[in-house]
Structures are given as structure tokens and as C-alpha cells.
């Protein structure tokens, strides 16, 4: 199997220029080369097509796609790959259907993380269940205002220590990332989240930058919201 003819203007296959050539992907009209596509479609599709053409092993193709989708669910795909994001499955379906394969079944076969519904006889309205939040300190799910639950508010000393520990850990992660950025940019300026020294690097394809951004946002949230709220609890 060396090619897919989806329609008159949509095809992909292996291109050979001489007898010893291992083949290169050549495509037209599909998401591997379309400019209106995005990384979460283009990157796995290229690898998936190479697997199909080189191994003809549907089990290996299924395993690769499920592993990639699992990485998406776990947040392990760089943010830049989601730019111009669109639904991914139809793109694979147009190719796989030519082999009589339904890749949507592969996706639906992935395990789902489910939470048991809370049971509280005193709560009779359904909107009461929608207003639940996770406590930033203990991560328990409860009905509370702000970022900290009632139990953590009742123990201000323990809460303050937990918040301070989290802030220190996030600061250490930012410093480690900053050292990498210093070696890359040749400047110590631009490695913090402070507005006066905001990150100047705009290499959106950099894995360090994509790791720095959520860490910096989390640090800012803990310092400006959670830490302030825990201080109020301590003073009360």
C-alpha cells in the first residue's frame, strides 16, 4: 500500500525518485500540507501515514493514534499545536475509510475519566451541583466561595504553610526555566512573569516557552489570589 486517492484533488502517497529510494510523502489537498490546518492534525497524520505505508500494521496505527490522543487529554501536547484547532477525527476518517477502518471507534474505545456524582439530599436543585469547585489547597470538591474551602479556612496555619510551599515550588520551577532561557537568549532579562520584566522570547515552537507560560500563570494566580486569601483567613 503506497497511496490514498481520497478524491480528484485530495491524495497522498509515497514518492520514489530512484530505485533505492525509501519513499517520501507527497500530498495534495489533505491536512498534512493545508495551511488552514494545525499541529494536532498535521504532525500525527504525517507519522500515521508513514506507519500505514511502511508497516501496513493497523494495530500499530491504532496504538499510535490512541497514545497521541491520550497525550492530548493529559495536556502533554504543546500549546502551539492547537493554533487554528479543528476537529481531528474526520481528517483521519477520510483516509482510513478507504481501508474499511472506522478510526472513530478507536477513539471511542479510549478509557474515560469519570467522577461519581455527589449525593446530597439537602440539595434539590440541579444548579447546586454545577456550582462546585475544587479547593486550591487540598483539591477537595466542595461548595465554597473563593479559592479555599471551609475546612482549610478553619485551619489557617496549615493552609498558610501549604500555600507558601506551593509558591516556593512554582518559583523554583520558574527559576530553572529562566536559567535555560538565559543560555538561549544570552540575557537574564525576560525570564520572569513580572510586568516590568515580562518574557521577551516569542519562539512559540519552543518547548521551554510552552512550559514556562502555564507555570508563570499558575505562579501569578497563587501569589495574587490564593496567597492573599489565605492571609485573610489567618487574620480572621
Automatic annotation (TrEMBL):
Signal peptide: none annotated. It catalyses: DNA(n) + a 2'-deoxyribonucleoside 5'-triphosphate = DNA(n+1) + diphosphate. GO terms for cellular component: nucleus; zeta DNA polymerase complex. InterPro entries: DNA-dir_DNA_pol_B_multi_dom, DNA/RNA_pol_sf, DNA_pol_B_thumb, PolZ_Rev3, Znf-C4pol. It comes from the Eukaryota. Residues 135-208 form the C4-type zinc-finger of DNA polymerase delta domain. Residues 4-89 form the DNA-directed DNA polymerase family B multifunctional domain. One of its GO terms (molecular function) is DNA binding. Keywords: DNA-directed DNA polymerase, Nucleotidyltransferase, Transferase. It comes from Aphanomyces astaci. Its EC number is 2.7.7.7. This is DNA-directed DNA polymerase. It holds the Pfam family zf-C4pol. The keyword Cell membrane does not apply. GO terms for biological process: double-strand break repair via homologous recombination; error-prone translesion synthesis.
Amino acid at each position: 500500500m503506497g497511496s490514498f486517492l481520497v478524491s480528484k484533488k485530495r491524495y497522498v502517497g509515497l514518492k520514489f525518485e530512484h530505485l533505492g529510494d525509501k519513499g517520501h510523502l507527497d500530498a495534495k489537498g489533505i491536512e498534512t500540507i493545508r495551511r488552514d490546518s494545525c499541529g494536532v492534525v498535521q504532525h500525527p497524520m504525517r507519522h500515521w501515514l508513514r506507519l500505514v505505508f511502511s508497516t501496513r500494521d493497523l494495530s500499530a496505527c491504532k496504538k499510535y493514534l490512541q497514545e497521541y490522543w491520550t497525550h492530548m487529554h493529559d495536556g502533554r501536547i504543546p500549546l502551539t499545536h492547537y493554533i487554528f484547532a479543528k476537529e481531528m477525527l474526520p481528517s483521519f476518517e477520510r483516509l482510513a475509510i478507504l481501508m474499511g477502518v472506522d478510526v472513530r471507534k478507536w477513539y471511542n474505545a479510549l478509557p474515560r475519566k469519570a467522577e461519581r456524582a455527589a449525593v446530597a439530599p439537602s440539595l434539590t436543585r440541579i444548579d447546586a451541583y454545577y456550582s462546585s469547585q475544587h479547593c486550591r489547597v487540598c483539591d477537595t470538591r466542595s461548595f465554597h466561595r473563593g479559592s479555599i474551602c471551609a475546612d482549610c479556612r478553619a485551619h489557617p496555619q496549615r493552609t498558610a504553610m501549604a500555600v507558601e510551599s506551593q509558591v516556593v515550588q512554582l518559583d523554583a520551577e520558574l527559576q530553572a526555566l529562566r536559567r535555560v532561557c538565559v543560555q538561549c537568549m544570552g540575557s537574564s532579562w525576560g525570564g520572569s512573569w513580572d510586568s516590568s520584566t515580562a518574557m521577551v522570547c516569542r519562539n512559540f515552537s519552543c518547548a521551554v516557552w510552552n512550559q514556562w507560560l502555564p507555570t508563570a500563570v499558575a505562579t501569578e494566580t497563587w501569589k495574587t489570589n490564593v496567597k492573599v486569601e489565605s492571609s485573610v483567613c489567618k487574620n480572621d
